[in-house]
C-alpha cells in the first residue's frame, strides 16, 4: 500500500497479475492500470505513476454488454453505473455516502439571458457534502477498502477535505485530513465535525501536498485519495458524463462547459462520453468540450490561447480557491480534448466570477460557489465571443455550493429595504 | 387571492365549486379543502381557515388506483408522487427546484452506538437549498401558479427564506421574503443572493409573521407559502413519508422520529403512511411516531408528558432556531398521533443538541443543523429511557444542513494537531 510508482518487476505484462490478497472482482470490470503516455500496463493496485516513463496511470477495462435498462434499474446514485467503474459488483452493500444522480436542470431563464436556445445545468451542489468531490471520494474509498488500507487520507483546503472526512466517518475507517493551518475557521469546522484526526500544517497548500506525498511513500496502508489511489479516485468523475447523457434521454449534448482545476474532471467527462458511444448506449455524434478557469489561475486557458502544447505553471491569485491549482496535472490532456472536439478553454476575472454566481442564483435559483461562478461567467464570455454556438444544446457543470464561499458575494447582496413591522411601512417601500 | 378565510357564501357544498379561472386538473386529484376540526368543505383556493369554525383546512382527494410501477417510472424527485399531491399532472413541465428523493441511509454505525438493531436516516440536507423546506415550497409554488398569484412570499428566519427565494427565482415569479432585521449576515446572504426583494423588518419573528398575515389579507395576488396557500404547502411534507416507505422496499418502518416545529411535518408523514395503506401500496401494519423538540422550546413535549390535550405556548430559548415555534399550529395533532400510534414526544437540552450533531457526523458522515441534532439527541434519549424499542426498524428524519448553523459546533471541534510540514513532525503526533 506504500507503493506510489508501480514496481519495476511488473515490466509490460500482457495480462497484469493482481496485487496479492485481492478478492475476485475487487475492481469490477477494470483489468489494469494503463499509462496514459506509453500504454504500459501494470496490475490494479496503489500505483499512480508508470514504472517505465513516469506518465500518469489510468484504469483500463474490459466491459461486458451494458444496457440502459440495467442502469435504470440501479439506485439513484453513482452505483447505477457500477459496471463502468473500478468497484466490486456489491459496492452498494459497503457503507458509503451514496453520491450522485444529482439534478440536471433545464435552465431556460439563464438561456434567455445569454441568448442560448437550449441550456442545462448539471448541479452537483446537492451531493452529500455539497460538491462533486463526493463522487471521486466514493470510488477512492472503494479502492482503499479493496486494497486493505488502514487509513483514508487527503491533503485539501476545502471540498475534498469535507468529502473525505464524511466518507471515512461513514465507512468506519480511520481518516486523516491535512489542511493548511491558516484555513478559515468555518472550513475547518466543516471537516473537523466528522473526524478527530484533522491535522493543521504550517504552510500553504503546496507544503501540505508535499507532506502527503511523503507520508504516502513512507507509511504502510495509507490510501491518499488524490495520491496513491488517484487512478481509482479520478474515475468517479466519469459519472458526471454518464448522468448528463442519461438525463438528456440517453444522448450526448452538443457542448459542455466544465471548470478546470487539475483538469481531471474534464478529461473524465470526455472518457465517459467515449465509453457510452463504444458501448452503444448513445448515438455517436460530435460534441465540443470547453474548459473554464479564473484569470487569476488560468495556465490552461493561457496555453490554449497561445497555441502551446504544454502548460506553464502559475502562482494562483483568485477568489476561486477550489480551482486554484497552478500546475494542473491533466492540463495537457485538457488542451488535447478541447482542441480535438472543437471547444476552447477560456477564463474570467474575479469580478466576472462574482457576477456569475449572482447570475446563476437570480435566473435559476442555484447558489453556487466560486467555481460555478467561474463556469457561468465563462459560458457568458464564450457566447459573447462567438466561441460557443448558442443554437446548440449546451450543458454547464456546477461543481459546488455557495454556502462554502459566502464571502465572495456577501458584500454584493442584501435587503432591498429595512422597515418597521407595519403594513403602511411596507407599502411605502414600493414593493407591494 | 387575498382571501385567507374561505368566503361565507360557500356554506357546506357537498361538491365544492372550483375557484373561477382555474384550469381543469389544476390541483390533480385534490377535490376540496376540508376542515380538520368540523369536516366542512370549501373549494380549492387561497384559504387556510374554515369559514364555519376557523379550524385549519387540509387538502382532500379522490385518488385513482396508483401503482408502485407508475411511481417508479417517475422522476427522481417528489413529482414521482404527483398523483398524490395537489398539483397538475404536467407539474414537471413548470420550472421548479425538483427537490426530494433524497438519501435514505442505513445507519449501522449510529445504530451500534445507541444499541439499535436497524436504523435509517432520511437525509433531507441534500435538497436544492439544503432543507426539507424545498419540498413544501415546491407544492406552494405550484398552487401559487395555478391560482394566478403575482407574488410569491414568506416570512422566515432561515431555511424557508432560502427555499422560497430560490424557487421563486427559478420560476421567474416576483418573490418577496421577509426576515427579522437582526438576522445574522450569512443567513441574509443565503436568501439575498436569489432575490432583489428581501425585506428586513425591525422586530422579532412574531412581528414579521404578523406583518405577513396583514399583507396577505390586504394585497391582491400575493401567495404567502405558509399563510394563504398553507394547505397546499403543507402537503409537500407527505413526500417524506412516501419516500421512506418506497426506499425501504415499499414497507412502513416500525418507528419514526421526526422533529417538531409547527408539527406539520409529523402530521403529514402520518397522513402519507395512511394513504399508502389505503391505496394498497404498503401492507397495513402498526407504526409508532415520535416527536423531537429542544427543551428550550418544547411545548408539545411538555403537554405530552403532562397528559394534556392542549399545548400551552412558550417563549423559545434554544439554539435550535428552525424548531423555535413557541405556539405550534399543529401541536394538538402531534399529541393525537404520537398517542394513537404508541409513540411519544421528547425533548433534549442544547448541549444534547450539540452532542447529537457530532454523533451523527462522526458515525454516519452527515453534518446536520441543530434540528437534526435535536432529532438525533431525542433518538438517543428515547432508547435510554425505554420509550423506543431498539429491536424494531427505526427511521429518523434529518431536515437540514450543518453549514447553516456552524456556530453550534464551531467551538467543539478543531484540528487534533498543528505541525510543521515534515514527516518527522507528523510521526511525532502519534497519528501515524
TrEMBL record, chains A, B:
Pfam families: PALP. It comes from Nocardioides panaciterrulae. GO terms for biological process: isoleucine biosynthetic process; L-serine catabolic process; L-threonine catabolic process; threonine biosynthetic process. Belongs to the threonine synthase family. Keywords: Lyase, Pyridoxal phosphate. Its EC number is 4.2.3.1. It comes from the Bacteria. GO terms for molecular function: L-serine ammonia-lyase activity; threonine deaminase activity; threonine synthase activity. PANTHER family: L-THREONINE DEHYDRATASE CATABOLIC TDCB, THREONINE DEHYDRATASE, MITOCHONDRIAL-RELATED. InterPro entries: Ser/Thr_Dehydratase, Thr_synthase-like, TrpB-like_PALP, TrpB-like_PALP_sf. Residues 99-400 form the Tryptophan synthase beta chain-like PALP domain. This is Threonine synthase. It is an enzyme of class 4 (lyase). The modification N6-(pyridoxal phosphate)lysine is found at residue 133. Residues 1-20 are annotated as: Disordered. Its cofactor is pyridoxal 5'-phosphate.
